[in-house]
């Protein structure tokens, strides 16, 4: 396994976070200015928040697969980490 799937998931997570933060910032600024956000603005925020949750779930799966795959590569190449003596 390469890091490519993890890297793609990390980039997607970062992008989803930026978008969701932008939508949250818009809603916050509207409320602070005394403007009630429109249903469309709220819908966009909810959609982007859901996309963020999905991107985070994908990232967690890819991160979880990266660790065992990396350990397997180390064992395969004879560079397995030594057991702790603690």
Structure description:
The structure is a single chain. With 86 residues, this protein is mostly helical. Helix content is 78%, strand content 0%. α1 runs antiparallel to α2. The longest helix has 38 residues. The chain starts with a helix and ends in a 10-residue tail after the last helix. The model has no long low-confidence stretch (mean pLDDT 88).
The span between the termini is 31 Å
DSSP helix count? 2
Radius of gyration based on Cα positions:
20 Å
Average residue-wise pLDDT: 88
Count all strands and give the number.
Answer: 0
Write down the overall geometry: rod-shaped
Question: What's the SSE pattern?
Answer: HH
Q: Helix share of residues?
A: over 70%
Instruction: Please state the structural category.
Output: mainly alpha
**Main beta sheet, described?**
none
Low-confidence stretches: none
Estimated share of beta-strand residues? under 5%
């Amino acid at each position: 396994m390469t890091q490519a799937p993890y890297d793609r998931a990390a980039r997607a997570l970062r992008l989803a976070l930026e978008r969701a933060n932008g939508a949250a910032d818009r809603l916050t600024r509207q409320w602070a200015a005394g403007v009630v956000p429109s249903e469309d603005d709220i819908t966009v925020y909810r959609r982007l928040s859901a996309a963020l949750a999905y991107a985070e779930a994908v990232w967690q799966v890819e991160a979880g697969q990266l660790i065992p795959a990396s350990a397997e590569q180390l064992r395969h190449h004879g560079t397995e980490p030594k057991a702790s003596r603690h």
